[in-house]
Specification:
The complex is a heterodimer of chains A (400) and B (473).
Chain A (H helix, E strand, L loop, with lengths): L19 H6 L9 E7 L9 E3 L3 H6 L11 E2 L4 E3 L7 H5 L3 E8 L7 H10 L10 H9 L8 E3 L16 E2 L3 H7 L3 H5 L13 H26 L10 H14 L6 E6 L8 H25 L6 E7 L19 E7 L6 E2 L18 E2 H12 L25
Parallel strand pairs in A: 1-8, 1-9, 5-11, 5-12, 6-7, 6-8
Antiparallel strand pairs in A: 2-4, 3-4, 5-10, 9-10
Helix pairs in contact in A: 6-8, 9-10
Chain B lengths: L7 H11 L9 H5 L3 H11 L26 H28 L3 H13 L7 H14 L4 H9 L2 H6 L13 H10 L8 H10 L23 E3 L2 E3 L3 H10 L1 H16 L5 H13 L4 H10 L16 H12 L1 E3 L2 H11 L21 H15 L30 E3 L2 H8 L6 H9 L8 H12 L5 H9 L8
Antiparallel strand pairs in B: 1-2, 3-4
Helix pairs in contact in B: 3-14, 4-6, 4-15, 4-16, 5-6, 6-7, 7-11, 9-10, 12-13, 19-20, 19-21
The chains are: A alpha/beta (400), B mainly alpha (473).
Chain lengths: 400, 473
């Protein structure tokens, strides 16, 4: 198993090229070098057909049309097998760089896509919050301007990126980011001196500040990107493009802590097999290309990847050869620094269901807390409220 | 905050932005000529009638799809698409009513109540029915509105009242009734929620959209609720809730925040809540009191509130007479900015103020005028996917502006009446509610450019609409 001391090499790696004035503001902690990449599977991925309980008769009984044939599956142990489209990823399991956390959920599961995704974003299953856990991380542990603390690969920001004080930055293409702010309002119309960040009218000052910070972050990211070209192969899928952009930003030395991207829709109510196969293939090819690229760039050691979906699907297939919204699902963590690689816990029982759904056992907030405290090295006190504890996900003695 | 006095013109515009969807070039002159009390009176008078929207065709029914849509998977799917299309048409019918109705105050408050009783279901007929109820009661007794809402099929569906049975109570509606709709959190116990939920057991509606109690699922036992005990009916539950002074405080806080953009000082809230309570929750009377109060026109409240996406869009529609050829176009604007009518994100409604703003949405909001008036393409692509539901936008977003028409003749005629040597300053005074001291150099430069014919009125309009100042009202 990889140990934390291998991270010493990070100090020689290309990401450590922040301008001197920025370095001074950053804490020289190793944890500060670490990066989290989140891949969100939109629409409710069918967990049972992704990591398949291939020796369980109940699986085949519940899914006469949708169950995958044993001979096609990639067996990982005596109970769990990967969907054949995930063949690229089995090596990470065998090399101890993948942890599968089974039965993740939250109290009073909600089957609405929107609400359940909001719950995963806000990390607040019991109340309606207008901030997300990444946003609150930025509120409490932001990088000095103009470094974007968190970046979401979308032109429309999600709740997860919203903080009380500030938001993560969202874009599909960083090279177009500057164009966001090329509006006639910002740089072009007003004189450089007229920045109006500090007017008494606080909301007006906030608007000007948003424009200025956005434009500066855009410039900052693009200056870095222009200085470094990356020669790694990536699939030309949407996820492939997103992950390529993230790899480029990481390799350019951008100090961003969290990258967030998504794939889907996994909302396979009808004729699921073909759609699901294509999506999983896109997922596996993208992630594999990404990790291989990071390895080449000596960036893999400082990276962890979290994969989740807003819910799983029901155990039994429906009449349309698809599956309906369920509760509970697995989470995946790819990293060199896992405490317990492989299957973190036992697979859910197909026998003891709750109204046709799998029982969840691990609260997703315990995974978030582990990532915040033991990977990003920060206190989760103001981010995951109320505290729900954490699971021992990462290896080594962690200091908060 | 500038301590400079707020001009009469600005006060009138303040009233029209907060109690409506902004001044329109067509009738703002009539309002300038009135004092504040008269102007409020005029707004009230113009809102006397409630005009229903009935855009949903009769082939859409309340519950089960009509027979011809039940037969095959394909026909059921077709019905699903029909529901979606008609919901979009209802959205735009409402948007246009907001922009065009003289009953601005009623429509603005209907918008407020839609956020307060936030509801989002797929059936457009039920959404339409609910919306017409909210509009009907928007300016009168809150209790009547509440009574209509507890029997409302859309709300019954949205908050699972039809899954609330004697044996398996579902507390969703009872919880939101107390937490969000009336008393507010902290003024009742979990036991009160459980007991109230028992009252609403067996709730359902028929295929005509009429309320229908499922007697077998209804719990008709004795309930204890907020210190009362007995065979309480739904009406009695509402009476008990309305008898709590805290209900008036909660509603007044929310209504005044909507109008002012800030939470008011406690003594004003108390005074207004006392009044609302004494007037038996008559919303029109409360509004009259707020809108005629001198503090409502204090510099702290004028030009300091970030427009919600709907306010921004409808305000522009009033100015530029936008004609969306295709309802989906109008929906895209709303979705990109994060606020689509009839689709609040959850039962607690939309965010406010800064919640609307990030680098992307702000950039988009600032680009809209250029996009609408000059037909300039946006400098970037809009996302293909605007949500995680199976609800993808499939038009070419870059060419949005070619999918609609505007008619700015009225607006330009209004600007042409402004004296040449003051044109830019007067346009700014009409378009902006913020204090403009910081913009004097900018405005003078534009005035010079106008006088030397480097810029015309239309170009100046685009530039003024593109500054962050226009994002506030």
């Amino acid at each position: 198993m990889a140990t934390i001391s291998s991270e010493n090499t990070f100090f020689n790696s290309p990401q450590n090229t922040a301008p001197a004035f920025l370095k001074q503001k950053m804490q020289p902690l190793r944890e500060n070098e670490r990066v989290l990449v989140v891949i969100q599977l939109n629409g409710g991925n069918d967990g049972l057909n992704t990591i398949v309980p291939f020796q369980d008769d109940l699986y085949y009984k519940n899914r006469p049309n949708l169950s995958l044939a044993k001979k096609e599956l990639i067996a990982l142990d005596t109970y769990n097998a990967l969907h054949p489209a995930l063949s690229n990823l089995q090596k990470y399991y065998h090399e101890g760089e993948l942890s599968v956390i089974h039965s993740v959920g939250y109290p009073n599961p909600n089957r609405s896509h929107f609400r359940s995704m909001d719950i995963y974003h806000s990390a607040a299953p019991q109340s309606y919050e207008n901030t997300g856990w990444v946003g609150r991380y930025i509120d409490n542990f932001c990088m000095p301007e103009p470094i974007p603390t968190a970046i979401e690969m979308s032109n429309v920001p999600s709740l997860v990126m919203k903080g009380n004080e500030q938001n993560g930055i969202s874009f599909e293409d960083p090279r177009l980011l500057e164009k966001f702010f090329e509006s006639p309002a910002s740089q072009n119309l007003l004189q450089k001196a007229e920045r109006f960040d500090h007017l008494d009218n606080q909301n007006l000052a906030f608007l000007y500040k948003t424009l200025n910070v956005g434009a500066e972050s855009g410039n900052y990211i693009n200056e870095k990107l222009n200085a470094k070209k990356l020669a790694c192969p990536f699939p030309s899928t949407e996820l492939g493009k997103d992950l390529k952009t993230i790899a480029e930003m990481m390799a350019s030395g951008l100090e961003t802590k969290i990258y967030y991207t998504s794939l889907g829709s996994f909302d396979t109510h009808a004729l699921q097999l073909n759609t699901h196969q294509k999506l999983l293939q896109q997922f596996a090819e993208g992630v594999d290309a990404f990790i291989q690229c990071l390895k080449k760039q000596a960036l893999w050691g400082k990276t962890s990847i979290l994969v989740f979906s807003e819910f799983g699907r029901r155990v039994a297939e429906n009449a349309g050869k698809g599956t309906d919204h369920g509760v509970g699902n697995f989470m995946l963590v790819f990293s060199k620094h896992l405490a317990k690689a492989g299957f973190y816990n036992a697979q859910p029982s197909l026998q003891n269901l709750l109204g046709g759904d799998l029982m969840w056992k691990i609260d997703f907030r315990q995974v978030y807390t582990a990532i915040l405290e033991d990977w990003l090295g920060v206190s989760s006190e103001k981010i995951i409220v109320p505290a729900v504890g954490k699971i021992p996900l990462f290896a080594g003695k962690q200091v908060v | 905050m500038s301590t400079s006095a707020i001009s009469h013109q600005k006060k009138i515009q303040h009233l029209l932005w907060r109690a409506g969807f902004g001044p329109s070039p067509g009738n703002v002159g009539q309002y300038y000529a009135l004092n504040i009390n008269q102007a409020v009176e005029k707004l009230m008078t113009e809102s006397t009638e409630s005009v229903d929207i009935n855009s949903v065709p009769p082939k859409i029914t309340a519950k089960l799809p009509p027979k011809q849509y039940q037969e095959t998977l394909a026909s059921r799917k077709e019905y699903g698409l029909l529901l979606k299309d008609e919901k979009t048409k209802l959205n735009v019918a409402w948007l246009e009513q907001m922009a065009n109705t003289p009953a601005q105050l009623r429509e603005k408050m209907c918008f407020f109540w839609h956020d307060h009783f936030a509801c989002n279901i797929k059936n457009p007929l039920l959404m339409q029915v609910q919306l017409n109820k909210l509009r009907k009661h928007a300016l009168s007794y809150f209790g009547d509105m509440l009574l209509d809402i507890i029997y409302d099929p859309a709300m019954i569906t949205y908050l699972n009242s039809n899954e609330n049975s004697k044996k398996h109570p579902n507390e969703n509606f009872a919880r939101e009734l107390l937490e969000l709709f009336t008393i507010g959190i902290g003024n009742y116990t979990e036991h009160d929620i459980k007991e109230a939920a028992r009252v609403f057991t067996g709730w359902d509606f028929n295929n005509k959209g009429e309320f229908a109690l499922n007697k077998e699922e209804h719990d008709d036992g004795i309930k204890q609720f907020l210190g009362n005990s007995g065979y309480l009916t739904a009406e009695e539950i509402l009476q008990i809730i309305l008898a709590q002074k805290q209900t008036a405080v909660h509603l007044v806080s929310k209504i005044s925040f909507f109008l002012c953009g800030k939470y008011l000082p406690k003594d004003i809230i108390t005074e207004l809540a006392d009044y609302y309570y004494a007037q038996q929750y008559h919303t029109g009377k409360l509004l009259q009191k707020i809108l005629t109060a001198p503090w409502f026109y204090d510099a702290a409240y004028v030009g300091t509130r970030i427009k919600s996406p709907i306010e921004l869009l409808v305000g522009l529609m009033r100015l530029l007479k936008v004609d969306f050829h295709n309802p989906n176009t109008a929906l895209v604007f709303q979705k990109v900015m994060g606020q689509a009518l009839l689709q609040p994100p959850n039962v607690s409604g939309w965010g406010t103020g800064k919640d609307w703003i990030n680098g992307f949405t702000l950039s988009y909001r600032l680009n809209i005028p250029r996009n609408l008036i000059q037909k300039d393409k946006l400098p970037y692509k809009l996302p293909k996917k605007l949500s995680t539901e199976e609800d993808e936008f499939d038009g070419d977003a870059e060419t949005l502006s070619t999918m609609l028409d505007i008619d700015i003749e009225n607006c330009m005629e209004f600007f042409r009446q402004m004296p040449r040597e003051q044109a830019v300053f007067q346009m700014a005074d009409f378009l902006y509610q913020t204090d403009l001291t910081h913009l004097q150099t900018f405005l003078q430069n534009k005035q010079n450019a106008f006088e030397s014919q480097k810029l015309n009125r239309k170009q100046i309009l685009v530039q003024l609409l593109s500054l962050p100042e226009y994002q506030l009202n």
